[in-house]
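Record type: monomer structure entry
Structure origin: computed from sequence
Chain ID: A
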Amino acid sequence: MAETLVATPRTGKFNKNHARRVRVEGKIPAVVYGAGQEPVAVTVDPKAVTRILYSETGHNTIFDLNVENSPVIKAMIVDWQNEPIKGKLLHIDIKRIAMDKPMRVSVPIQLIGIPTGVKNQGGILDHVLREVEVECLPANIPSHLDVDVTGLSIHGAIHVSDLPHSGNLKFLADENATVAHVTAVKADSTTEPAPAATEPEVAKKGKPEEKK
């Protein structure tokens, strides 16, 4: 079942004081735009937004947006701002989605398994590309792409061309871009051992410093 986000239109002057009042009321300000329509300023429940952002599909989640006095539409969260210290949501941007039109999204890449180059050859796995941009219909957006790296030996690499391809996805990144590779551990030849102390440290005499 699709997630539903209820939104209430905002009116008045959209300044910092207005946004502060919205947050005091337990809501957060948001803007709905896209699909060739005028942007609409709304307020939404931060708990519902957090539930969407932390779902399996994350920010690529397509949900039902119910703006009061308007038809329910498909939408996606495309940007959000958090308070830097406490991490509370401050504002989100919501885009109207046309389910019959391709869109560009970034999909997370998950590495599965332990490479033989790490397990048996003492190498280190370096995950270089953690997201890849693709183009597809909204209904075909994957939550993530799994890549099995167990057969990756030392100096071996996984490229975008090795990711699971299908007719539903068009990869926009360079097919030769490195997703992950196993590197050898190099000894640091520039590090010299510290010289041995020529004289023992002399203990200071006198009473211990009193705690103030």
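Annotation 1: Residues 197-212 have pLDDT under 50 and may be disordered.
Annotation 2: The CA atoms of residues 127 and 180 lie 4 Å apart.
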